[in-house]
């Protein structure tokens, strides 16, 4: 089935299960890579043991954090104003551009950046409070690993313009 002339924001790929067949394993491998590289930089020796302990929680919580970012972006499509309201035309002219390109205007860029930031913060929070709790590393190392995961696994793909898909 081919879809032509459809406005389809790349961040909405989360909703369609067929894309998950690629996204989920790729995300798992990327999370594992970031954990391993960060632990190597921190000069921690028992990397395999730590990875086995934390990877599944880190992976699942990363998806949850990214999903919250998707909900923020999707909310733009849910918010509606009556045509008599002056915000109706402004909203349609400015904010609905989030479905096409995050770089269309400053309002969309700010909202997109906010969604990416919230997802990154949640990745940090989930990892520092929950996912890395059982890892045999110091609290300082846990915080550094959480920051590394937040920075490198934030959903920057949200910024990709839809036009790149079609």
From TrEMBL:
Ranges annotated as spanning the membrane: 20-42, 54-78, 98-124, 145-165
Q: Which UniProt keywords apply?
A: Membrane, Transmembrane, Transmembrane helix
Q: What is this protein called?
A: Uncharacterized protein
């Amino acid at each position: 089935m081919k879809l032509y002339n459809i406005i389809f924001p790349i961040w909405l790929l989360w909703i369609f299960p067929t894309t998950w067949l690629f996204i989920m394993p790729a995300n798992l491998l990327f999370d594992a890579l970031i954990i391993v590289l960060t632990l190597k930089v921190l000069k921690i020796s028992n990397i395999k043991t730590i990875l086995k302990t934390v990877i599944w929680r880190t992976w699942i919580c990363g998806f949850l954090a990214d999903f919250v970012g998707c909900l923020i972006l999707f909310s733009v499509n849910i918010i509606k104003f009556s045509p008599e309201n002056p915000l109706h035309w402004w909203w349609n002219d400015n904010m609905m551009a989030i479905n096409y390109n995050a770089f269309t205007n400053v309002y969309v860029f700010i909202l997109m950046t906010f969604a990416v930031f919230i997802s990154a913060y949640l990745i940090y929070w989930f990892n520092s409070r929950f996912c890395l709790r059982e890892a045999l590393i110091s609290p300082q190392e846990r915080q550094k690993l959480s920051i590394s995961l937040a920075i490198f696994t934030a959903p920057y793909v949200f910024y990709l313009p839809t036009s790149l898909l079609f």
